[in-house]
């Protein structure tokens, strides 16, 4: 049985803003899926219907055999990490256990021993065990995002969602964070769906790619099938010569509209923002 199953999912905001149009797909246990697409394509809406924050206008969403109502089975990493800055990395990670512990016990710092162990293990996974007692507010953006991943892991979810988890980070920090997210997923066999704007980072870490454009899935395939032409079509529309088609055989842009290459194999900043 797939962990995620969407059947003919449609989401219309208000009268006529069609965010998702007839999306049907399955995601199997342990897959690391990256959702790509231009701004406004429907990526966030897709993730929100997976965690039950948004109800589809029509169609069916099934997570592990039931509707995504039991939130604790879906962990979420946000673009804005939403950490409590005055608390340590460890205590922030522990809040992932809140759905099991409840606020009152957490205020009394009465977390179960196994939750404390889970928080330390999660911090270890994201390379922050040594910084467990550091105040979140004094951490870098990348470190904060790693604490956010640790917090989601402590929740012990069956599905991990990450909505643009690295968009506010520089390319190096983005790679670091995605590396830790992938490591966490691999270690735990966690089914993961991440939406990303940075195509080069996505290509490096994703196993399967879902391309969304105007609310529709226009590509669904493995890394080998995610050619530069596919990426151009996704961001610029079919048949256009966009940024990515102009790459060398080794995947390094040869110039053209792509501009800067630097140490990044594909341009990051040039990913278009349509709005
Ligand atoms: N709460 C809302 N109310 C009305 N329209 C919305 C709402 N949320 C999203 N939309 C619209 O739905 C469409 C899809 O938005 P969504 O945020 O899912 O796209 P996205 O691919 O995640 O974009 P971005 O990459 O910019 O975050 C857009 O036209 C957007 O304006």
UniProtKB/TrEMBL annotation:
One annotated GO molecular function: ABC-type phosphonate transporter activity
Annotated ABC transporter domain residues: 4-239
InterPro entries listed in its UniProt record: AAA+_ATPase, ABC_transporter-like_ATP-bd, ABC_transporter-like_CS, ABC_transpr_PhnC, MetN_ABC_transporter-like, P-loop_NTPase
One Gene Ontology CC term in the entry: membrane
SMART domains reported for this sequence: AAA
Alphabetized PROSITE patterns for the sequence: ABC_TRANSPORTER_1, ABC_TRANSPORTER_2
Keywords: ATP-binding, Cell membrane, Membrane, Nucleotide-binding, Translocase, Transport
Stretches for region Disordered: 241-275
Pfam (any one): ABC_tran
Taxonomy, superkingdom: Archaea
Name of the molecule in the record: Phosphonate ABC transporter ATP-binding protein
Source organism (scientific name): Haloglomus irregulare
